[in-house]
Every structure is written in C-alpha cells, then in structure tokens.
Amino acid sequence: MARRTRDEEFSEYVVQRRTQLRRIAYLLCGDVHKAEDLVQTALMKLYVAWPRVQRTANVDAYARRILMNSGIDESRRPWRREESGLDGLDPTVVEGTPLEDRSVVMDALASLPLGQRRVVVLRYFLGMSVEETAGDLHCSTGTVKSQSARALARLNDLLTAQFGH
Q1: CA pair distance 133, 3, nearest whole angstrom
Q2: Higher confidence at residue 55 or residue 164?
Q3: What DSSP string runs through 38-85?
Q4: pLDDT, position 98
Q5: For 65-79, what is the mean pLDDT?
C-alpha cells in the first residue's frame, strides 16, 4: 500500500473536522463570517505545521489551540473591532431553541471576558474535562475551575435577568 501524501492526510483531517472547528470559532467570536475567517487562518497555520503535528498524540487539541490563538490575534487587530456591514445576512438555524433565546445566550457568552468564554466553550459546548481544557489552554486545572465558576455565575446573572426565571 502506498504511503499517503501530506496533502491527502491533511485534506482528510479537514473534511472530518471543519464543521467542529467552525462551531468552536463561532462560539468564540459570535459571528459567522469572522468564524469562517478564523477557521481559514487556523487551517493555514495547521497545514504549515502538519508534518510535526500529525506525529503528536492529539491533533484535535493542537488545532483547537491554533484556533483559539488565532481568535486572540484577530481580536487585537484594530480593523477587527469595526462592525461588519453584513447585518441580517447570517444564516438562521430553524431547529431547536428559538432564535431569540439563542441570540440572548450568544450575547451573554460574548459579554464574558475571553478567558472565561474559552473555558465555557471547551468545557460545556465541547464537553471536555477540566484536565483536557487546562491542557488545551496551557493553564492549571485550578484556573479552569475558577474561570468556569466565574463564567457560569455571570451567565446565570445575565440569563436570569433576561428570562426572569
């Protein structure tokens, strides 16, 4: 059997993980278009590092880390602070939670400091353990726990005020 090429292996990985990376990016930034840009940037960086990364035990963790760091880098660029001129063009999701409720949750998530938002996305949207989250974010498990507690308390306050429950 012939050895697969770098491009074939990378393409297969992208096909399998692109949707998940888009979801993570969207949860981090709250904008479909910015999320797609983040994924593209992260995949370019991953491709460059692919020969080294694919030998590691956890390519997914490396890809998530690149995505998160790319999000931080993009948020620091002055032109990224401007509002997009594409209001109303984001695709809507029809199933599940009503759009109004989803919008409130995304606004609440977006109001969290970046560190807390990253922990919430990894722990509660992706279902990662405290240890896995700490590994991805290169911090201690204590930091993950404290960031989680603060984030959940803040989200609880925001959502309770919004929904009145």
Answers
A1: 34
A2: 55
A3: HHHHHHHHHHHHHHHHTTSS-HHHHHHHHHHHHHHHHHHSGGGGSPPS
A4: 55
A5: 71
Please state, rounded to an integer, the average pLDDT across all residues of the chain: 81
The pLDDT value recorded for residue 73 is 66
Count the Cβ atoms, other than its own, within 10 Å of residue 15.
9
Q: Write the pLDDT tens digit of every residue in 90-117.
A: 444 445 545 566 778 888 888 999 899 9
How many residues are there in the chain? 165
3 state SS for 103-134? HHHHHHHHHCCHHHHHHHHHHHHCCCCHHHHH
CA 23 remoteness from chain centre: 6
- CB-based contact 116:154 (threshold 8 Å): yes
Q: 133 burial class (0-12, 13-18, 19+ CB within 10 angstroms)?
A: buried
Round to whole Å and give the CA distance between 40 and 157.
35
Give me 155's structure tokens. Answer: 């989200």
SS (H, E, C) 1-19: CCCCCHHHHHHHHHHHHHH
Three-class secondary structure of residue 36 per DSSP: helix
Token pair 């722990």: residue: 123
